[in-house]
Amino acid sequence: MVGLAVTAWAWLPSGIRSRDLVSEVLRRPGLWVAGILLASLPDLDYLPGILAGDLNAYHHLATHSILWIATTGSGLLLLAWAITNRISLRVILWVMTLLASHLVIDMLTVDGRPPLGIPLVWPWSGESFQFPVLIFEGFQKKNWYDIWQWANLHVLGVELLWTLPVLVATLTIKTCNRKGELT
Ligand SMILES: [Zn+2]
Are 167 and 1 in contact (CB under 8 A)? Predict the structure, then answer.
């Protein structure tokens, strides 16, 4: 949802008619998929865990640090620039905001496994960081079977409850931001 909201904020034209929203999204589906993937990219660290037979074995390590976000974001932007020969401030902000949003969401999520939080300033410090108030519940995900339980549906519901309004607010601002409609 946050990936979609940031993508809507960055790419939907201001003052778009609400009835044109769907066609605008369908016009560039790759953009919305890229938004979701970029917002989820730090969780790439599940992949070695899948191979090791323990999903969490390498989770919340280097990919959840500011350094990784900065270098990966810069690398992706350089690649995009090399391919297209141009890069705009909007693209830079879109990519960096999406990657950083993942760290913010994770710091707002209950972590069931010490060290609690994410290693934000790795490699300079191994300390883990969390916000003092946690609004999202953590998924049960010790292994593949663990994921498919009802408790995780509740976790998903809480996540939707917090993030859906962000998407709706973004779409509302985009559709209302037309002359004569803001009064
Ligand atoms: Zn994560």
Answer: yes
Contact 138, 116 (CB under 8 A): no
Find the domain containing 39 and state its range.
2-171
pTM attached to this predicted model: 0.86
- C-alpha of residue 64 to centroid of ligand 1, in Å: 7
Could you list the pLDDT tens digit for every one of the 183 residues in the chain? 889 999 999 999 988 998 899 999 999 999 999 999 999 999 999 899 888 888 888 889 999 999 999 999 999 999 999 999 999 999 999 999 999 999 999 999 988 788 999 999 999 998 999 999 998 887 776 666 677 777 778 888 888 998 999 999 999 999 986 654 544
**Is 180 inside any structural domain?**
no
Ligand 1 centroid distance, CA of 9 (Å): 22
Q: How far is the CA of 76 from the centre of ligand 1 (A)?
A: 19
Angle among Cα 3, 5, 7 to the nearest 5 degrees reads 70
The count of C-alpha atoms lying within 13 angstroms of the C-alpha of 90, restricted to the half-sphere facing its C-beta, is: 8
The CA 16 to ligand 1 mean position distance, Å, reads 33
How many domains does the chain divide into? 1
